[in-house]
From TrEMBL:
It comes from Archangium lansingense. Keywords: Membrane, Transmembrane, Transmembrane helix. The chain crosses the membrane at residues 6-27, 39-58, 70-89, 96-118, 124-145. The keyword Transmembrane applies. The keyword Iron-sulfur does not apply. This is DMT family transporter.
Length: 147
């Protein structure tokens, strides 16, 4: 079981490593298009095209649609906010400080989500070790912000 978890962790780590690359690419796109909103739109459009191709290629994976809660439908708005936010903040903070702050915010929110079992996650109680990890990550993010 530990080996599988390490594999999934490594995949997630690699995905996380792509985020500052994407932010830099989107900033260059903003420079070329003259607008952070146009750059975000192009990024989302190309992502939508890629997902459309994937859906068409995996047509056999159909299931009966189920009713989802209202909040399940608005995740795309959060994604658009994050992409546009990185386009706006990357030049102001730099990649390391921006993503240190993002990761610290993600971990703090994730710990609360786990504790209360929000948005479909199982309840995982908040612990002292999680609190220490969040404080250390936040401290590290603030250290990265210092130049």
């Amino acid at each position: 079981m530990l080996r599988a978890q390490l594999l999934w962790f490594a995949i997630a780590f690699g995905m996380g490593a792509l985020l500052p690359v994407q932010a830099g690419m989107n900033v260059r796109l903003r420079d070329a298009l003259g607008s952070p909103y146009r750059a975000s739109l192009v990024s989302f459009f190309l992502g939508t095209v890629a997902l459309l191709v994937l859906v068409l290629l995996t047509r056999g994976e159909t299931a009966e649609p189920k009713q989802a809660p209202w909040w399940a439908w608005v995740g795309g708005f959060i994604g658009a906010t994050l992409v546009t936010g990185t386009v706006l903040l990357t030049p102001r903070l730099g990649a390391a400080a921006l993503f240190a702050a993002l990761v610290a915010g993600q971990l703090a929110a994730a710990a609360l989500i786990d504790h209360f079992g929000l948005v479909g996650y199982p309840e995982l109680p908040f612990s002292a070790s999680r609190a220490v990890g969040i404080v250390l990550l936040l401290a590290g993010a603030l250290l990265v912000l210092r130049r």
